[in-house]
Amino acid sequence: MEGTVFTPSLEGMKLVKSDEGEMLTKPFLDVCKLILPVIEKFGAAMALVKSDVGGNISRLENKYSSNPSQYHLLYSMIKEEVEAKTAKSSSSCTNGLLWLTRAMDFLVELFRNLLEHPGWTMSQACSDAYTKTLKKWHGWLASSSFTVAMKLAPDKKKFMEVIGGDGDLNADIDMFCKTFSPLLQENHKFLDSIGMDNLKAS
């Protein structure tokens, strides 16, 4: 593998904004898709996250494909749902973007932990990231399934070798967290402006 497992998504992040600084739908979803192989390397521990992320990407992609010129900008489909008063529906793109962003928050936090706390086990890094990001939005059921899944987290050393390829893994993780975080924050800011950032899982 040339570079690390993050190399493709780091390249992709350069294309996420238009010249006017607006978030573009397809490049943003492509970056999230490029992170799926990273989640895959976790095996069973992340099966829930992977299906969740994959499902939300597909939902937004289907909407985008229905009219690429109309939904060229990521927030355009959300604004449309807000006007139609369907944003709060569990199958809305707004909901899809919200949970996709939260899952990505979790991954950024997890990789930040792996970088900043080399002494932690994978389970510790996962649990801490979960507590800081997803836990407050999850109900009891999701929370307990997550806790069980985290016990299946792979051995950290092996995992780092698998995702490292022949690149500088620490530099790429650092770059990934620093570059992706502001994009996610922007999504939160937008979702907050339409009153959707505090939605809890049913």
UniProtKB/TrEMBL annotation:
Signal peptide: none annotated. GO terms for cellular component: cytosol. Pfam families: GLTP. Keywords: Transport. InterPro entries: GLTP_sf, Glycolipid_transfer_prot_dom. PANTHER family: GLYCOLIPID TRANSFER PROTEIN-RELATED, PLECKSTRIN HOMOLOGY DOMAIN-CONTAINING FAMILY A MEMBER 8. This is Glycolipid transfer protein domain-containing protein. The lineage of its organism: Eukaryota, Viridiplantae, Streptophyta, Embryophyta, Tracheophyta.
